Amino acid sequence: MVEEVILLGEYISVYEMRVRLALAEKGVEYEYREEDLTNKSQLLLQMNPVHKKIPVLIHNGKPISESLIILQYIDEVWKNKSPLLPSDPYQRAQARFWADFADKKIYWVGRCVLTTKGKEQEEAKKELIDILKLLEKELGEKPYFGGDNFGFLDVALIPYATWFLTYEKRGGFSIEEDCPKLIEWANRCMQRDAVSKSLPDPCELYGRVLERLKKMGFE
Ligand code: GS8
C-alpha cells in the first residue's frame, strides 16, 4: 500500500522541526504544508480540533498531534531504521522525562528572553541557562543523549539549538560560555545529514523571529 504522509507545520517551530527530523531519520517521504497560524487552514482545525496547533502528522488520513507523541508514533510505525527510543524501559522513561522537562520549561523562559528587557530579561536568561545546565548534566560525557546513538531525546532537543542564536542576540549573552558541552553536542548533531537537512539556518530563523516579534509589537 502506498503510504500518504502529510505534515502540517510552521518553519520556525521547534515542535514541528523535531517531527521533520524524525521523518528524515527514518527516511519517510511526506508532503509538507506550511500553516499560517494567524489564519489556520480548515484542514488543521479539522485534524487537531482539540488544540488547533501544529505540528500534526496525517498518516493515511489519520491525524496524530503533539510532537513528542508524534515522534513515538513514527518510531513505532517505521521500524525499518534503528529505533529512536531506547529498548530499556527505564531509559525510555528517562528520555521521555527530559523531553517533557525541556518542553515545559524552555518555551516560556525563551519567550521571556525575547520579549522582555531589564531585570525581567536578566532573570529569564539566568533561568534559561539553569535549564540548559540541567540538560548538559544529563548529557554527561556521552556523545549523544541517546548514548553512542543519536536517539529520541536528541531528536526532541536539537531543534532548540537552532533558537540559541536568537536568544543570544536578543539577550546579549553567550550560551556556550556556560554550557560548552551542550554546544559541542549541538555541533555534533548538526554534522548528521538528516539534522542539517531538516533544521533551519539559525541566522535565517533569527530574521524570521525578529519579523514575527515586530508584528506582535515587540521592538
Ligand atoms: C505544542 C505545539 C505548539 O505550541 C507539541 O506539539 O509538542 N505541545 C505541543 N504549536 C504552536 C506553534 S509553535 O509555538 C501552535 O500551533 N500555536 C498556535 C496557537 O496556539 O494557536
Report on this model:
The chain is 61% helix and 8% strand. By secondary structure, the chain is of the alpha+beta class. The chain has 2 domains: 5-77, 3-Layer(aba) Sandwich (Glutaredoxin); 89-215, Glutathione S-transferase Yfyf (Class Pi), Chain A, domain 2, CATH 1.20.1050. Strands 2-1-3-4 form a 4-stranded mixed β-sheet, with helices on one face. Strand 1 (5-9), helix 1 and strand 2 (31-34) form a beta-alpha-beta unit. The termini are far apart. The model has no long low-confidence stretch (mean pLDDT 97). It binds S-Hydroxy-Glutathione. S-Hydroxy-Glutathione is lined by residues 10, 13, 15, 37, 52-55, 66-68. Residues 10, 13, 15, 37, 52-55, 66-68 line the site of S-Hydroxy-Glutathione (GS8).
SSE layout:
Layout: E1 5-9, H1 14-26, E2 31-34, H2 42-47, E3 56-59, E4 62-65, H3 67-77, H4 89-115, H5 118-139, H6 152-171, H7 175-178, H8 180-190, H9 193-198, H10 202-215
Parallel strand pairs: 1-2
Antiparallel strand pairs: 1-3, 3-4
Helix pairs in contact: 1-3, 1-6, 4-5, 4-6, 6-10
The site of S-Hydroxy-Glutathione has 11 residues, from helix 3.
